[in-house]
Each structure stands twice: as C-alpha cells, then as structure tokens.
From TrEMBL:
PANTHER family for the chain: ALANINE RACEMASE, LACI-RELATED TRANSCRIPTIONAL REPRESSOR
Source organism (scientific name): Pseudoalteromonas phenolica
Ranges for domain HTH lacI-type: 44-98
GO MF, one example: transcription cis-regulatory region binding
Pfam families, A to Z: LacI, Peripla_BP_3
Keyword line: DNA-binding, Transcription, Transcription regulation
Descriptive protein name: Transcriptional regulator, LacI family
C-alpha cells in the first residue's frame, strides 16, 4: 500500500470526529471542529474573538462595550483585535438569538402608604452595592419600585424581555407579588429574612439576633424601660421585634405592650410620634430600640428639642449602620448590616438560577457598633 493510501485509511477512521476542510487527490487536510480556521465566507464570533485575546467571552463583551471595570489596556487590546478582524457586536441579533438581555431588574418593595422612598440612605447603600456587584458579573441594573412597576412583575419584567431576572429588596407586609413571580418560575432573589421557610431564595441579615443585640446593649447600659420604635407588621422588623422580646425575657424584665410604638419606618414618623408620646405621657422610657438608623435620627431629634440628655436620660440604638450614623450628634450606636456582601450573595444566587443550578438562602451575620448614644461607649 502506498504512503498516500495509508494516510487516507488512517484519516477515514477519524473523520467522523473532525470537520472536512479541504480535499486533494492524495490526502485529507483536517481540523478539529473547535479549531476550524476562518475562511473568507465565515465571520468571527464573540467566542472566537475571546479566544484570540486569551480572555473569557464575558470579558471580551464588556471590553467591546468599553466597560470601565475592565482594565484599560485589556479593553484597548480587545478593541484593536476586533477592528483588525472587522468584528462588531450586533446587540439586537444577539438578544434575539439568546433571548437574554443581560439586565437584572432591582425592585424596591416599598410598603403601601409609606413615606419611605429610594432616598432612604440604607436603600441607596444597598442599590449602590447591587449595581457594582451586577456590573462585575457582566449585567446592567434596571431600578424600579413596587409602586411604579406593574403589579405582575414576572410579566412586566421577564416575559416582556425587559430583564433576565429579579432582585427584590424587602419582603414588606405582603408577599403576593413575590409569590406571583415564584409561580411564573421567573429567576429571583429576595432581600429579606432568610430564616423564614419560603420556596424562593432569600438573602438577609439575622434580624432577630440583631434586635436581640440592640436591646441587650440598652439593658446592659442600665435601661429598664426600653421603647420599641418600628413597624411590627413588616416582615424583617417583626423579626427584630422578636429579638427585642427575647432580650427582655433573658434579662427578666417585664414585657410592657405600651412600650411598643408602631410607626412608619421614616425619620419624620419617629420624630412626630416620640414628640407626641412625651407630650401625652411624659418621659416614660429610658431607652429606645429603633428598627432603623433613620427612625433613630427622628427620635434623637425629638429628644434633643425637649432637652432630654442622650445618653444621660435616654439611650438610643439604631439598626443598619448607614454612613450618617457615625456623623450624627451624638454618634449612633447601631447594628451593622453588610450590604456589600449581601449584594454579592444575591447576584451569585440569581446567576445560579440562570445556569439552571439550585439557589440557596443565605444568612448574614450582624455586628453591634458601639458609639455615643449609649453610655458604655464613653
């Protein structure tokens, strides 16, 4: 058998695993399917460009969009390669092929009739962290709130191709909209109370333990009558309320329902209610556990205007540790929530669903930050 015949026999045994590229009388020239060279008729794909550049497909895509999260040198190198090969991304065609938008809708699940808004510093802090985490993962953020968005979130955002998935910030008082999204089998993650047994992934702080830490700090500061200032019907706040009761019980202090003041979780509501309570009942408390730092600020303003010494007469502990907490006078003792880690975990659990992997709820640790609104910090 001639040399050429032997080559033809060998190549015929492996041809089913390879694409035929060219034929000549004596032999077959072949390439692996994934290594096929470009012909004049073929066009460079994003995956091919990424291979040429030695980066991932997502990095190549972001570099072509001039995303600042990609190093300048890398962006310029990939853009130069794209220009050299006359490559450009057809975003519309790409979306039609993949049915992906690379957009995630972030919905602020605000309670009906509340004055709380996106201007709330904690919500701003969370939104900022989510935006950064999504950008790092190659997604853009579409921000909305529950009062602006259509009540059918799954239809409005997912079916209409406005977004690939949802991150819902807050469980609020009603979960109807969230349950509708679950029923529609749309990818979602909720910022809320992860200890609740739900059929969707929840990322959130250990709210009950946070409420316990805050109240325990007040009791250890000498407080005997601790006011709870917040909304006990709100899912996360209700867990903080359980922590408040737990600390009272542990310290063998009588639970007095009259010390529970239900309000909208805003500074204005706290300021008005504390003023009203002092006017009607006098200074009947020596400590305040406010369910958020903004609520604490409203209470502190009311106390200071009535010349109540803080923490001499009344000690105050908040929840969240927003940036203003350290700058307020007196600096606020509070329970810190890690928004950066929370955002990272929410994005990770959403991407798990995009990749058809199981998503899990995650509990974040909280930390008591002692400052001058409680006497132990002096």
């Amino acid at each position: 058998m001639s040399f050429c015949k032997r080559l033809q026999t060998i190549f015929s045994n492996v041809c089913k695993n390879y694409r035929i590229f060219a034929l000549c009388p004596c032999l077959t020239v072949y390439f692996k399917i994934e290594d096929v060279a470009l012909t004049q008729e073929s066009r460079l794909t994003l995956t091919g460009l990424a291979k040429l550049a030695g980066v991932s497909t997502s990095t190549a895509s972001r570099a072509l969009r001039d995303n600042p999260l990609i190093k300048k040198e890398t962006r310029e190198r990939i853009q130069a390669l794209a220009k050299e090969h006359s490559f450009s991304i057809n975003h519309a065609a790409s979306q039609l092929r993949t049915q992906k938008t690379n957009v995630v809708a972030v919905i602020l699940n605000l309670t009906d009739h509340t004055e709380q808004s996106i201007n709330d510093p904690f919500l701003l802090k969370m939104v900022s962290a989510l935006n950064l985490a999504l950008n790092k993962a190659g997604y853009e953020m579409l921000l909305s709130n529950s009062m602006m968005a259509d009540s059918d979130w799954a239809s409005y955002f997912i079916s209409s191709r406005r977004a690939d998935g949802l991150i819902i910030v807050g469980q609020g008082k009603s979960e109807d909209n969230v349950n509708d999204v679950v029923t529609a089998k749309a990818p979602l993650v909720v910022w809320g109370d992860p200890k609740l047994n739900k059929n969707y992934p929840i990322v959130g702080s250990d709210n009950q333990y946070g409420g316990y830490l805050a109240t325990k700090q007040l009791i250890e500061s000498g407080c005997k009558k601790v006011l709870f200032l917040g909304d006990t019907e709100h899912t996360e706040m209700a867990q903080r309320y359980l922590g408040y009761q737990q600390a009272l019980k542990e310290a063998e202090l009588h639970f007095d329902p009259s010390l529970t003041i239900d309000i909208d979780i805003t500074s204005k509501a706290a300021y008005e209610k504390v003023n009203q309570e002092i006017l009607n009942r006098g200074l009947f408390f020596d400590g305040i556990f406010a369910v958020s730092d903004m609520v604490a600020f409203g209470a502190l303003k009311a106390l200071k205007e009535r010349y109540v010494s803080i923490p001499g007469d009344v000690s105050v502990v908040g929840f969240d540790d927003i940036n203003m907490a350290e700058l307020f006078h007196p600096a606020l003792t509070t329970v810190r929530q890690d928004t950066d880690l929370a955002a990272q975990l929410m994005v990770e659990q959403l991407i798990c669903q995009f990749e058809q992997k199981p998503a899990q709820s995650k509990v974040l640790e909280v930390e008591l930050i002692k400052r001058r609104s409680t006497p132990e910090s002096y």
